[in-house]
Automatic annotation (TrEMBL):
<dbReference type="InterPro" id="IPR016181">
    <property type="entry name" value="Acyl_CoA_acyltransferase"/>
</dbReference>
<dbReference type="GO" id="GO:0016747">
    <property type="term" value="F:acyltransferase activity, transferring groups other than amino-acyl groups"/>
</dbReference>
<protein>
    <submittedName>
        <fullName>GNAT family N-acetyltransferase</fullName>
    </submittedName>
</protein>
<dbReference type="InterPro" id="IPR000182">
    <property type="entry name" value="GNAT_dom"/>
</dbReference>
<keyword id="KW-0808">Transferase</keyword>
<dbReference type="Pfam" id="PF13302">
    <property type="entry name" value="Acetyltransf_3"/>
</dbReference>
<feature type="domain" description="N-acetyltransferase">
    <location>
        <begin position="10"/>
        <end position="169"/>
    </location>
</feature>
<dbReference type="InterPro" id="IPR051531">
    <property type="entry name" value="N-acetyltransferase"/>
</dbReference>
Length: 178
């Protein structure tokens, strides 16, 4: 189990079934649907199941997953960030979703920097990449702030074509369509 990470403004911890109300709200915000995907989660029970089958199962299987983000002062939940292991990629990719009420405050970058540091130092992962829809400019900027650079595109199992971001100092280990 991951010990909570504390940044200047955020507390980052594993998601639990008790996070279902916030998770349900986040997954149904229009920016999440437009920028990531409509997960079709519409009830608290579906949110609990999605947490159990997704992030919570990932902790068990991979040792990492998506994490809950809250403001350190006051504890308000603001989003999720973490690592996703996709079948079609040999390395985990970093992802995040910030609640619309907290857009524009730099919380995504702050959270992702902490997750990247944890991936390297806490988990010993040699490579973490990013994948993002071409039209999602805000997420592309976050990946660039993490030192990742666009390096072609890949097709996910869903059929979606995404831009691949990787650390340019590491040898290419992921085939792209360039």
């Amino acid at each position: 189990m991951m010990q909570p990470l504390i940044t200047e403004r955020l507390t980052i911890r594993e998601l639990t079934p008790e996070d279902a109300p916030f998770y349900l709200k986040l997954l149904n915000e229009q920016p999440f649907i437009d920028g990531i995907h409509d997960k079709g989660v519409r009830s608290l029970e579906q949110a609990r199941q999605h947490l159990a089958d997704g992030p919570i199962a990932s902790y068990r299987v991979h040792g990492f997953g998506m994490y809950h983000l809250s403001l350190t002062r006051g504890g308000a939940p603001v989003g999720i960030a973490g690592l996703i292991k996709r079948e079609e990629l040999p390395w985990p990719d970093i992802g995040y979703a910030i609640s619309e009420a907290y857009f524009g405050l730099g919380l995504a970058t702050e959270a992702c920097r902490a997750v990247m540091s944890y991936a390297r130092e806490g988990l010993g992962l040699p490579v973490v990449v990013g994948v993002v829809s071409e039209h999602n400019l805000a997420s592309r900027r976050v990946l660039q702030k993490l030192g990742l650079e666009a390096d072609g595109s890949v097709e996910l199992n869903s059929g979606e074509r995404v831009v691949l971001y990787r650390n340019p100092s590491q040898p290419r280990q992921i085939p792209s369509d360039r």
